[in-house]
Design a protein that fits this description.
Length: about 675
Amino acid sequence: MQGNKKFILSWTAGAVLLLLFFYAAMAGLWEAARASAAAALEKQVSSVLAGDLSEGNLFKLGASLSRLMQAGSLDYAEIRSFSRAGGWEKIFRTHSRYGDTDKTFSGFQCGSRRDIILNRSKGLSLVTTLPSNIAGSECVALLVSSDLPSDLKKFRNRLAAAFGILLVLILVFFLRLTIAWHKKTLGLEVAARTAEAEKEAAIGRMAAQVAHDIRSPLVALDTALKNAAALPEEQRVMARHAVNRIRDIANHLLEKHKTQPDGAFAGAGTTSGVRPQETHLLSSLIEPVVAEKRLQFEPRAGIAIEFDLSAESYGLFAAVQPVELRRLVSNLLNNAVEAIAETGTVRLSLASSGGSVLISVEDTGKGIPAELLGKLGQKGETYGKPGGSGLGLYHARTMAESWGGKLELSSGPGGTKVTVSLPAAAAPAWFVSRLELPAGMAAVVLDDDDTIHQVWKGRFESSRVGEKGVELYRFSSPDKFRGWIKDNPAKAGGAVYLLDYELLGFAETGLSLAQELGLADRAILVTSRYEEKRILEECLRLKIRMIPKGLAGLVPVSVRTAGPRAVLLDDDMLVHMNWKLAAKAAGVEFLAYKEPEEFLSGLGALNKDTPIYIDSSLGDGVKGEDIAVELHEKGFTDLTMATGHGAEKFAHLAWLKAAGKEPPWK
């Protein structure tokens, strides 16, 4: 496109210059011919009038001029004499159609000659000094206007025709040349695009083959990991994350380069192979990448990569594509490490601010000049990396923007900071945002890893839950866990259970034990495998929530104090407000839920005798009495339908009470 523009501009300039040159040549020829005709006219008139002027006979002078006009030699004539005392004085004029001609003689000097334009429709006009004189005057001047001679008219017409023909020839030549050049350029572009498409197709076939071939060793690695009991928990988690990431990359390659119906491949510029955005826990996507980078850059002993999760970074979710977010973080960490000469620190942080999640990568490198900072993040722009393409920052910026966020850069002599801001997403139903323990009840941990036992012990001690009667029981084997439940039915009935999924050396899992012992409504799965589809689906089926094991040390812990307590499930917020005011006035601890899913996810924290009030119509076709039946089957004993319907509607449920919409407290 740029070449076409230069070509068109060059030929346009050449054509304009050629036309200007030809026009100047024709204008010169025309002026020469016109000057020759004017000189001939001057000579003719002067010779005719010379005798009349010498005699001083004005009558004969006028008659001579009239004859010249009748013969067609003149269109207009005027004679004036000049004296120093009176200036130019009019002696004779043939007619007055041209009006006042004083300006024509203004500044005219005796003995000179001047070509003028008296009438644009006529060809020749001039003022000249006549050779003879009239007594009492210094000189006599003649103003004449005449049509062009026929031969001069023909010459003018031929010049105009020649110029027109040249203009047409240049335009035709330019048009044909432009068309020919456009065809050639179009052919080159088509050839280039065809070659690029063939190249992308070849890359796509190779990528698809690699992705396909890599699946067999991945299955073998998965099998080996299931039997890797000798590995510490941290190493098993790292290996599992690495295998999962390789699998994600392989799947992404297959989707990105999958064959289209016409046999072509979806290349990098298409969107057919892009997975939709899903809500993910950001720390779980970032932490494995950090672990990989620490291993990758381990030979550079002077560089430290820090990623310390804090309470502020717990439970931060965003809608992203996992493979692309990992690639984004990986590229930013690579850039940060490469910006450090020998020793320094790369610090990655995760925080929230004003409804956004902030992923920041900061280094202590050489920094970026201010004049280049605004260009980085654009395709092809890079700094300080020999052979760098700038694609890392470009990918990070475009992906952040596609997820509704943005990328910001700041830099100074002490280093550079890249911040990716993404819209925060609500935590999914399976996630435990806060661990609430009932006062005076037990908390039971089942995990084969002693490290996690120490984590929970430290969390409970720092939260001082023991001061409110919460007792901690810890088990490492399913048999001892079963035995405690059997021997302590009173404590087991109101306890909260924190269960690991994978118990090395045992056939049971935390999920199978929760189902076997009827603990699903009070159990929380604490596992590093919380994102595996099979485990997630089973938890959703059993209505068991989860805590990522790596975040167990960060989950907020609180104790729910004992005392009067009631729960309302109603989709009317006005009813919520009315009941809350009444509960506050009566000193009753009260919880209100609008969504059945939210209500059911919090059942594990309720005692079986907690008064529960349920509206009959909960929206979207959900019936409160159906939820009451489910609660009754789980062992809840104090259930009331708080609705406008009469008690006869629920007569078939003998254990279910009915009341109105008014709060039960005065």
